[in-house]
Amino acid sequence: MKVASRLLDVMVDRNLNGKTLEAAGEVDKAIALYEENVLDLFDGDHPYNRLRVIYTKRKQFAEAIRVCRIFVKIADMLIEEGSGRSDLNPKRDKFISCIEKLEKSHPEAQND
């Protein structure tokens, strides 16, 4: 439990530092932190949402779709495991909607 708690602390710190870096204009450094949380399968939507926004602004639509799909998979897994989190379904639906919009407006960016 201590290891899981420590990892969660690290991931939350990455999100907070990423937010600070974005505000300071150091978006590439923020991306690196958010991507670390994606690799660690952070179960909150913050890094996925920020990456979606950043990648969309940069016209990196395939990357935006990728991070949205990862969040949907994590949400599906948590829902399947019986998570009592009431925020999962609405957040999952939001990311599915984002995927659909991105794929419709940028079909060349679709990835499997």
Task: Write the SSE topology.
Elements: H1 2-23, H2 27-39, H3 46-57, H4 61-80, H5 88-105
Helix pairs in contact: 1-2, 2-3, 3-4, 4-5
- How would the global form be characterised? flat
Tally of DSSP β-strands: 0
Order of helices and strands: HHHHH
Number of discrete helical segments: 5
Give a short account of the largest sheet.
Answer: none
Unreliable spans: none
User: Helicity level, as a percent range?
Assistant: over 70%
Cα radius of gyration in angstroms: 14 Å
Q: What structural class do you assign from the helix and strand content?
A: mainly alpha
Describe this structure as you would to a colleague.
By secondary structure, the chain is mainly alpha-helical. It contains five helices and no strands. The chain has helices at 2-23, 27-39, 46-57, 61-80, 88-105. The termini are far apart. The mean pLDDT is 95.
